[in-house]
Amino acid sequence: MTDKAKTKTILSLICNCVFFFVTTGVFISYFFVKSRVIENGWQSLRFFTTDSNLLTAVAAALVAVCDIQKLRGKRTDIAKPFMLLKFMGVISLLLTFCTVMCLLVPVYGAAMQLTGTAFHMHVTAPVLSFVSFVFLEADRKISLAQSFLGLVPMALYGTVYFLQVLVFENWMDFYVFNQGGRWYITVPVIFTATCLMCLLVRLLRNKMTERAHR
């Protein structure tokens, strides 16, 4: 391992450990501190923000294990399943970031969406996971087919969300996706935006991988 590769691996390890422990700590705090929108920890799981952060936290822990193995000379890259899981988490968090900035901040205000633990879940986590995945962990390319795995978390959550909001009416429309009955607009917009994120992250990751292998 070259000095440059070792430095990147150490930084990746730090980023993934910080992500895992901070996100886990925030989630645990939901069981002890009530907020305006979360009365208990389990209720927080109805929010895509929580789900996407926990998904990425699991992936970060697995990638961190690979980083340690790389530093010990036991492997040369991050395991493919762990890399793809991290990719899905990164796309989910980018979608969270864009939703917050474009929809939730204008509706609910920055004070609710960008302060306290929400700042980590909505801003720090997406930025940290994106930077580490694209610039520090780029040791394997993502194929075009693999890139669309990034749609899976959004599709699964979106199905549950719209069933709960529109069909069963168990949840309020807290993401305002159906504001004015316009779900037929928001659904294709979100799908298209997520596809573009998948392709963009793939492009950047693959370019960084090519540079690393020169």
Query: What's the tally of helices?
Result: 8
Distance between the termini: 13 Å
Mean pLDDT, rounded to whole units? 94
In angstroms, what is the radius of gyration?
18 Å
**Helix and strand composition category:** mainly alpha
Query: What is the approximate shape?
Result: globular
Q: Based on DSSP secondary structure assignment, what is the total number of beta strands? A: 0
Secondary-structure element order, as H and E?
HHHHHHHH
- The stretches of 5 or more residues where confidence is low (pLDDT under 50) are none
Percent helix, as a range, is over 70%
Let me know the largest β-sheet.
none
Strand content: under 5%
Note down, in words, how this protein is organized.
This protein has 214 residues and is an all-alpha fold. Helix content is 72%, strand content 0%. It has helices at 3-29, 48-71, 80-108, 110-113, 117-136, 144-147, 151-167, 183-212. Helix 1 runs antiparallel to helix 2 and helix 7 (151-167) runs antiparallel to helix 8 (183-212). The radius of gyration is 18 Å and the shape is globular.
